[in-house]
Amino acid sequence: MRKYAIGDSELISQYKKGNEGAFAILVNRHKKRIYTTIYMIVKDQYLAEDLMQETFVKVVHTIKSGRYNEEGKFLPWVSRIAHNLAIDHFRKAKRYPTIVMEDGSNIFNSIEFSEDSYESHQIQEDINALLRGFIKELPDAQREVLMMRHYMQMSFQEIADATGVSINTALGRMRYALINIRKKMEQKNIAYDQNFYPK
Amino acid sequence: MIKTSTPNDILRILYNEATEEEKQALTSSFLFDELLEETYETFKELLEQLDLVGMNPSQKTVDAILTYSKSYSLHSTE
């Protein structure tokens, strides 16, 4: 787990006192995991963007009205809001189309260009898109645990409580999720330890 | 008696949910269980890869969230 110089609790305290900069740090710190949680459920970029905003409308309202009481567990709390909103939308609409480019690839926004070349960045993006596909293909119970533990940062005990299973079952589902992803990667010849060149 | 580790223990260790004793037990288990060590390395690499899979929302969305928060402040202090 990454450690930050200023913890979430401190940032929330500052935000409650009116420090909007503290809120900006919180949003930027956790936007990736929260957005990924939403996207993996709705599988639609534009809807995910809307739900991301809707999630934070609730967050802002809850904190600024003094009703936030989960200090130290900001990300799991926000992720649960995002998760519930995404599930609600998914249930209402049943199904959303996946947005694809003309070349058949998914639209992925906000690519964080670094010093890497466009080509190497594109290779990594392709790999990431494949992995996202593997996650989507997992059995529901396995994908749920993976999303809750890795992106929503809930503990295995919290996942067990939330899904009504034992902690060993939650751990087992996570283990099988990883094993299944690993198998799919092997089938696609995706290597870990050098550059990622899928065949 | 030496406690042996299981693949489930590996996950708890990788996610910092295990005790120091359990971490030491895992290291000891590696001495006589190569498969367990291989599983540890595989899971560790996979979890690192999952970190890269995450997607970012557009800057427009982030800006909208921050603007909403600021306007909420203005509204509430009027």
Cα distance spanning the termini of chain B: 68 Å
Helix share, percent of chain A: 55-70%
Q: Look at the structure and give the mean pLDDT of chain A.
A: 81
Assembly state here? heterodimer
Count of individual domains of chain B: 1
Query: What overall geometry of chain B do the principal axes of the alpha carbons give?
Result: elongated
Structural class assignment of chain A: mainly alpha
**Strand elements of chain A, count:** 0
Order of helices and strands of chain A: HHHHHHHH
Chain pair forming the biggest interface: A-B, 48 and 34 residues
Q: Please write the string of helix (H) and strand (E) elements of chain B.
A: HHHH
Radius of gyration of chain A: 18 Å
CATH superfamily placement of the largest domain in chain A: RNA polymerase sigma factor, region 2, helix turn helix motif
Number of domains of chain A: 2
Query: How many strand segments of chain B?
Result: 0
How far is the first residue's CA from the last residue's CA of chain A? Answer: 33 Å
Shape-level CATH architecture of the largest domain in chain A = Orthogonal Bundle
Per DSSP, the total helix count of chain A is 8
Please report which band the strand proportion of chain B falls in: under 5%, 5-15%, 15-25%, 25-35%, 35-45% or over 45%.
under 5%
Structural class of chain B, by secondary structure, is mainly alpha
Major beta-sheet overview of chain B: none
